[in-house]
Amino acid sequence: MATQNTRALARLMLAPSVGLLLIWMIVPLAMTLYFSFQNYNLLNPTNVSFAGLFNYQYFYSDPAFFQSIWNTMLLVGGVLLITVVGGVALALLIDQPMWGQGIVRILVISPFFVMPPVAALVWKNMIMHPGYGVFADISRFLGLQPIDWFSQWPLFSIVIIVAWQWLPFATLILLTALQSLDGEQKEAAEMDGANFLNRFIYLTVPHLARSITVVILIQTIFLLGVYAEILVTTNGGPGYASTNLPFLIYRTALLGYDVGGASAGGIIAVILANIVAFFLMRAVGKNLDK
Amino acid sequence: MGNITLKKVNKSFGETQVIPAIDLTIEDGEFVVFVGPSGCGKSTLLRLIAGLEDTTSGTIEIDGRDVTGEAPAKRGLAMVFQSYALYPHMTVRNNIAFPLKMAKLDAALIDKKVTDAARVLNLTSYLDRRPGQLSGGQRQRVAIGRAIVREPSAFLFDEPLSNLDASLRGTMRLEISELHQQLKTTMVYVTHDQVEAMTMADKIVVLNAGNIEQVGSPLELYNKPDNLFVAGFIGSPRMNFATGAVSAPFNAHTIGFRPEHTRLSGESGSWKGTVGVAEHLGSDTFLHVHVDGIGMVTVRTSGDVAVHHGDTVFLTPDADRIHRFDAKGLAIR
Amino acid sequence: MARAVSTRRTVFFTVAAWIVALIIFFPILYTIITSFKSETEAIQGFNIIPSGTFQSYIDVQTQKDYFKPFMNSVFLSVGSTFLALLISVPAAWSMAFSPTKRTKDILMWMLSTKMMPAVAVLMPIYLIFRDFGLLDSRIGLMFMLMMINLPIVIWMLYTYFREIPGEILEAARMDGASMWGEIWYVLTPMAVPGIASTMLLNIILAWNEAFWTLRLTTTDAAPLTAFIASFSSPQGLFWAKLSAASTLAIAPILIMGWFSQKQLVRGLTFGAVK
Question: Which of A57-61, B19-23, C168-172, C184-188 has the lowest mean pLDDT?
């Protein structure tokens, strides 16, 4: 009957998406996995041989590897700390009664729409430049020695830029969550004698907890892949001081032409991302049941 | 015309049987109400008639024609949904006109029918608004308007008043009843509210767990309930029940007596009890009396009775208004 | 109900919020200001009142051919979005209206493909693109952008479609609408707002994508991300020009972004926060 036709049609409509994503997921990943066990350099492409675990060993024994893992963690952790704490504070502030709330909201979320190369270059040249940047102007105004951000604090500088880009995202999501908090609940708590701090601890924080989790997980997925910001500012340096895992893989791959090594790095990145993804999927999946 | 006949209609979702084989006849022009607690299968039964669910087995006939396998639109029925299901992007006019447009009627004719329906339902000044700009009662009327322009052989209502507040519910109840008087078209109405069932129906079908417990006119159900379920479901406040030593003298497993058929006395009576809560409604007083051996008994007396919490009272049920039930819960007549 | 809030409190929060908002917005604001300065003015220390010259905008076009990467960005973001919608509308539709036991698993799996780090497949994708002659081609990059945003698009559409109440479809069926009538008169008008916001968010994401657009293009297909990134090589003072190019690159998307605040939350949290 009609329902059977509908079901067949439904499958047909779903097929292209499923097929494309299936190919998209399996083919490149299988190739990466395969390459990771090969000696394969683009400078010498005819000489390909089985490498066993050599690429992993090579990656593992490279001191830059551990530094890049550590940098990745610092970058992700630093940005998360700034954006979550700052996002909660900003969301609470914007949620207060004020004039021009709509415009304030627009100003605050704007950095999210700035493409990464622009964000990084604007910060590098116009804000953090040791000679002509606004920070340098402020330092001189205060009679201090201007800081050469990208040589003295390369990773921290990148953390600031990336945090500036993602703070709006955290703010916007937490603000949305905050505004869904039942007004009567707040009034009930007030009647029960809870002051602002109590209401924040016992009502707002538990209410925001889920959204904060979502913010952390989604940002982590994106932050693990930060690339353009590093490329246009420090190019990973000085040395490996601001090289994260994606950037190291990029260096190995397209600057060192080492397909095997880059692939081994890629597999490590997949494992890292999957750990985060596992928790994110659980958080999102729970929501689907409602 | 609008005879609807269900023959051995059965519905299962996978392993779970929602409705065991049911037989039911709805006469042309009748106002039939399906009533029962939530989850009793009354909505499913309505949707089976509408064609929105497929029957697992059995046949449905409308005016003697087998429509079991037919698409909903071909059955000549109109339905009013619980959520009204108005098209949010269309004006009231277009909402009402939609079924006519689908039937490819002439534009002038559509316009005339919509205007007529709007006049009947007091919607004329709202025709160019969207559903979002209407109140609950107005939306309800639009949904009804959309149903009546099709001139269906029967109307189906799925809990249409449950989203309205109490006073509006009373008004709409009257409007639907009046509409039935005017159109004299078969109406099948689903509700969980026995008051709606009693006030509107020509014929009530009481459902419980997919089974038809009893079919009859409101007063038949009130006066002669077939079983404990119907006895307890129809009538407000609920019928009192007593078992054991209290029911033994009546040769019954259980006896039932309605609050309004129980006399109250300060001096003597069949049972002695203590007043718990007295609800003074002005027109009536509902007393909740604790009686040893029975439990809580509800008594309905006149509004001017001055009885309060803690008073001792005596109760006597009207002898000819006692309902007797056997161990299976079936009425003993 | 809302209480009357004291004016003093409102003033305090207004001032505080505006100060914070302007600090956050400052880099963008200063970029716009600098774009109206001359190159010498741009490096003469802090100054928020530009001389108001349009020279940088003219230079960006005449010296660097700004229009080409701009059109590439438009082509890539709009093209990849339409391609993604073409594939995802039917998919989201079928999952929302004829769900099966596996629908939830399929959705979760689709989402999981988004978790794959781009860098992990850099090598195979690069080699595939090289071997098929797709490096620096707009078609190849458009396909890439479509693929990386496909899960988000399907998810967003799915959450929108699922909000269309089933009773409305049943009402249409009772009213005599055929399957196409149902789709054309009832579903499509109700789904259009959701599709439009999905489109908007996807254009924003594609416009700002800065991994594949940088790695798979050199000149011909290079969109604005690659164009701007080319300013990073230190070859003299060019800040006013950089500002002009940046302003042009972010302005359209900034305005679109302002209109899509709500959808952004929903799209980027996969419906977990609404």
Answer: A57-61
Report, at the CATH architecture level, how domain B4-229 is classified: 3-Layer(aba) Sandwich (3.40)
Q: Which CATH number is B237-325 given?
A: 2.40.50.140
Does residue C40 surpass a pLDDT of 50?
A: yes
Which CATH superfamily is C68-226+251-268 part of? MetI-like (1.10.3720.10)
* Exposure on the CB side of residue B263, measured as CA atoms within 13 A: 12
| Residue C111 to residue C150: CA distance in whole angstroms | 9
Q: For residue A130, give both structure tokens.
A: 């040791």
Q: Are B125 and B177 in contact (CB under 8 A)?
A: no
CB count in 10 Å sphere of residue C189? 13
C239 touches A: beta carbon within 8 Å: yes
List Cα–Cα distances, B117 to A112, B97, B268, in angstroms. 53, 10, 60
Q: pLDDT value at position B205?
A: 93
C interface mutation test: which of A6, A21, A32, A129 has the most C CBs within 10 A?
A21
CB contact under 8 A, A127 and C30: yes
pLDDT category of residue B201 using cuts at 50, 70 and 90: very high
Q: In what order do the strands lie in the sheet with B203-208?
A: B77-80, B154-158, B186-191, B31-35, B203-208, B211-216
Token output for C87: 């594939």
Query: How much is the pLDDT for A5?
Result: 64
Closest residue by Cα to residue B94 from B127, B121, B141, B71: B127
Residues in chain A with pLDDT < 50? 1-2, 290
